[in-house]
Write a structure and sequence with these properties.
440 residues; alpha/beta; DNAb Helicase, Chain A; Rossmann fold; 9-stranded mixed sheet; globular
Length: 440
């Protein structure tokens, strides 16, 4: 048996979970998505136990054995006797978290040894020792990041005091969009927030996301923009349009003057210095996006991430219902925002509910077919362009031409409300009607 494990401890923890399901939430907080037990068949038992708990609301030796047998996995897990034996030795429950920490220590020791051995092997065959060591350090940082942090009251109150002091001194500021009307409602985006920008096709979701990302980068906020629908070249075309007033169609067909060409080249020189990092890799899972974000944070000090869009994120595994896949993805993105301590801005398409209304105005309920998306989001911004639907005026009589309504339909930590801003249809660019360097 490996010296960095304790079979008795592992069995007692499983037995305690089966005996008293109330400990499962705290166990999940420690375990996360890791296989923390030493043997594969033990990890399989735990995985099935949690699956039964998730689906049935409770788990015990009887329904666990039944589920394992139904799936043909019972013998691989040691048979009925092995499952029943887990509850023969149950811990004193008030010490349960202490034993969980011991279990996690064994797991991290094994992982550290495994990565150390892998480094020795890679060093012997590496052409670039420095690159190999750098990659190893990144992996070790990830391992440390996954370790449990203190969750006691003193630690949390100390964090709140520190946060308030940093806000007062200006060391921590909200992430303004620099669209004045929008910032007046949201007071900017905050760290660890999941922000949704949602709308029907052709409403300008990418345009709004890219407008905000560009505004932030111009105010020296390092931004990562994942464009999973459009190519990086198409995104740069839009940025050129924002700066030079040339729409993408003219750029694609080369219908630009010599003067415009020289101005574009001048802007591209400026763009190289802008802390805006475009990634157009498609078909990524949340885990892959998160790994790239860690790298952007490490190398470029990125402070906010935009993802365009939800439907192009690859689920870890296919499920029968799309709604469940979306729910898992949105929950994972919210966890990513918290783990990386950054705002994550997710662009997503609304369902066809808007098409059934006379006004075509989107509502928060148009998200409700999308798993737990509405619940996971801290802020939801709905885009509505009545001009697109042939509506000439807003309810107050204002003309809709070159205008867009941004509805902050949900603000967990902010206000809600509708605002009207300028929208350039040719450039897909949004801007404040009363632009100011300082949103307030």
């Amino acid at each position: 048996m490996n010296q960095h494990t304790n079979e008795i401890l592992e069995n007692q923890i499983i037995g305690t979970l089966l005996f008293n399901n109330h400990h499962i939430p705290i166990f999940l907080e420690y375990k996360g998505d890791k296989n923390i037990f030493y043997l594969d068949n033990t990890n399989l038992v735990v995985s099935m136990m949690l699956e039964v708990y998730d689906e049935a609301g409770s788990v015990n030796t009887i329904n666990l054995v039944t589920e394992l047998a139904n799936r043909g996995l019972l013998e691989a897990c040691g048979g009925t006797h092995a499952i029943l034996s887990y509850t023969a030795d149950v811990m004193v429950t008030h010490n349960f978290e202490h034993y969980l920490r011991q279990l996690m220590e064994f797991y991290y020791k094994r992982e550290a040894v495994k990565q150390g051995k892998a480094l020795i092997h890679k060093i012997d065959s590496s052409e670039d020792v420095f690159d190999t060591i750098d990659n190893h350090l990144t992996q070790m940082e990830k391992l440390v990041d996954r370790g449990m942090k203190r969750q006691d009251k003193d630690a949390h109150t100390s964090d709140v005091v520190d946060l308030i002091e940093k806000r007062k001194s200006g060391l921590i500021k909200p992430y303004y969009t620099y669209i004045r009307e929008l910032d007046a409602v949201t007071s900017g985006f905050a760290k660890q927030d999941l922000v949704l920008i949602a709308g029907r096709p052709s409403m300008g979701k990418t345009g709004l996301g890219l407008t905000i990302a560009n505004n932030m980068a111009r105010h020296k906020v390092p931004v990562a923009f994942f464009t999973m629908e459009m190519s990086a070249t198409a995104i740069y075309d839009r940025l050129i349009g924002f700066n030079n007033g040339i729409d993408s169609k003219r750029l694609r067909t080369g219908q630009i003057s010599d003067y415009e060409t020289s101005e574009i080249f001048k802007y591209l020189g400026e763009l190289k210095e802008l802390p805006l990092y475009i990634n157009d890799r498609s078909g990524m899972t949340v885990g892959e996006i998160k790994a790239l974000c860690r790298d952007y944070i490490r190398r470029h000090k990125v402070e906010i991430v935009f993802i365009d869009q939800l439907s192009h994120i690859k689920p870890v595994k296919s499920l029968d219902k799309k709604e469940r896949e979306v729910g898992i993805i949105s929950t994972s993105l919210k966890a990513m925002a918290k783990d990386l301590d950054i705002p994550v801005v997710l662009l997503t398409q609304l369902n066809r509910g808007t098409e059934t209304r006379a006004s075509n105005r989107p509502m928060l309920s148009d998200l409700r077919d999308s798993g737990s998306l509405e619940n996971d989001a801290d802020t939801v911004v709905l885009i509505y362009r009545p001009e697109y639907y042939g509506t000439a005026t807003f309810e107050d009589g204002e003309l809709t031409q070159n205008k867009a309504e941004l509805n902050v339909a949900k603000g967990r930590n902010t206000g809600t409300g509708k605002v009207v801003v300028e929208y350039n249809t040719q450039l897909a660019h949004f801007q404040s009607r009363k632009y100011s360097e300082d949103p307030f």
